[in-house]
Design brief:
The protein is an alpha/beta fold. The protein folds into three domains: 120 residues, Aspartate Aminotransferase, domain 1 (Alpha-Beta Complex), CATH 3.90.1150; 235 residues, Type I PLP-dependent aspartate aminotransferase-like (Major domain) (Aspartate Aminotransferase, domain 2); 233 residues, Mur-like, catalytic domain (UDP-N-acetylmuramoyl-L-alanine:D-glutamate ligase), CATH 3.40.1190.10. Helix content is 40%, strand content 14%. The chain has a seven-stranded mixed sheet, with helices on both faces. The protein is globular and about 80 Å long. The termini are far apart. About 4% of the residues have low confidence. Keywords: Aminotransferase, Pyridoxal phosphate, Transferase.
Length: 651
Amino acid sequence: MSFLPKTPPSEQFKLSPIKAMELAASRVPNVVSLAQGIPSFRTPRRVIRFAQEKIAAGLCDKYSLTTGLTELREEIALSLEADGLSYDPEREILVTAGSIEGITATLLAFTSPGDEVLLPSPSYTSYLGAVSIAGCVPKYVELDEDNNFDFQVEKIEQGITKKTKLLLYCSPNNPTGTLFSREKTEQLVQICERHNLTILIDEVYKDFYYVDEPHFSATQIPEARERIIRACSFSKAYAMTGWRVGFVHADKQRISRIVKFHDAMVTCAPVPSQYAAIGALRFGADFLEEFRTEFKKRRNYCITRLDELSQVMDYQVPKATYFVFPRIKDIVKYSEDSHRLAYDILDKVGVATVPGVAFGPSGESHLRINFGREMEDLEKGFDRLEGYFFKVHPRQRQHKTIPVKNPQEPTSKQPGHTMVGRGARLLLAHASRHYLKRNSALVIGITGIKGKTTIKRTLIELLGSVNKTRGTLLSYNTEVGLPLSILCLKNPKTVKAKLLFPLHLAKQAILGREEADILIFEYGIRSRNDAETLLNIAVPDWLIVSGVEADPHLDYPAITEGIDHISACLPPERLLWIGDDPFVSTMAAARQAPHVIHDSQLSDGRLSTTTTYACTRETVGANAARALITAVTMAELLNTPADTIKHFLQA
């Protein structure tokens, strides 16, 4: 027995980083908040009138049943039925005071203090508070960022211990906008069945899809019905965040356990809000479609603005929700301290975002941006972000809003700053050359300033359907990042990882076997010296020159000289380049190359190369369109079957 004093719960518990940012932003004059997930729309008037009528009729003066209004539970059951789900409104549906209350009650019902709760990372930050209330230990499992943050099911299973009792995840995912694949979801359910885990799914964003595919929920797997609890909300779909009403549905035995904690916490959901929820289900379908259309328009706008920031940010196109989760590249000050970066942005230019680390360990080096706000706020916010990152119009403030954790100012750094020693760099280069010499694989290089990572991911998806293909880790593309990608090693961060790194490096260089037939690497070139350094690590068999025109403050003569140098090392017929970029078109090596990409090749649902293809694949932003044309051209040059390309363009 321990007689040491325990830390009071109030000192263990922290305010949500999202709410902390909003509080800080509220003290900044003329702030633009792209932080908290509040939609810009008002609750539909028809819904408000319906609730007002019930209030006027005296139907909202008393508690409802703890489980919620019978009328509302019946409406919910009908809406679930429309999705192919059958739940008894009497015993299998519980109306809650927002989804997070239902999630908290569920955790209390199915865990004990000290139990582990598995959380994908990145994942909604407020889950931590609910897990803490239940006295449980959060255990994060990293999502696959290069695969649009999909599940890594093998890592999830590896993370399960005897103490693991529950898996909690958000689908579609907040903050990444990910639609988890049906295949991975089914595998996940099988893992939970093998280990007897409860599955708690938060599906508050299920109504905001921007692609033409139906929402797939684990609740649609019949054999998993008794294992799954699903939390839903009216807050997002019907612009009702202030009404605080949602619901959970599950097998009757599970609901009977959850309701006891729900009753202890709130007695019942607010009755006026329950009537508003009835109104939303009866009259809200048209408004929901209107919201979805407008959010998609705002998402597309954000992607075009992020394309303009591609020198400093990399992103995955969100297929759902109203969030985008760009990763901050290593050249940015505070890139590895997203908390400090977010508050520095707030302080310098008056834009509130959410630090990525709030969503779990792998959220670090990201920011969450809410595109559910008014278009005017998005325009103003991105104008200010450009000013911050490109130092166009830095805004000076008299007071600081940043809660500084470390008073020392970090200096600007280059990628791979944790391994900057010259000896380490030479060792990495030698190991990479040795690895590539031992393993025969076709190397495709991508260089330029804009869109390298988008091209890489598009190429991997297309070429990977017929060849074993892998690419650069995230956007590792420097003297340190390129060899790490070649060797499939991550930049060591901790003392232990750094001590073990030489052993891992030697093992991979001497014994590592390459399973891929095609390797696709990014080459980050800002000068001729960069080009010579990276060529000393790996000479590509093919080279794609993406867009160069980006930040007007870049040293374009130095960049073009470097790219021209690496291009000249390959035969002209092994080069692909963007013909519409004014800087690329000035390079001597590029002008000799026969393979030129033009934006006009993709138009009106047709993509034209040596062949004209029908194209229904969604492309958002100029970078995505160029990546698609480039990938198809490269696939043709590598003799990829035409049917494979056609199928890819219909995805």
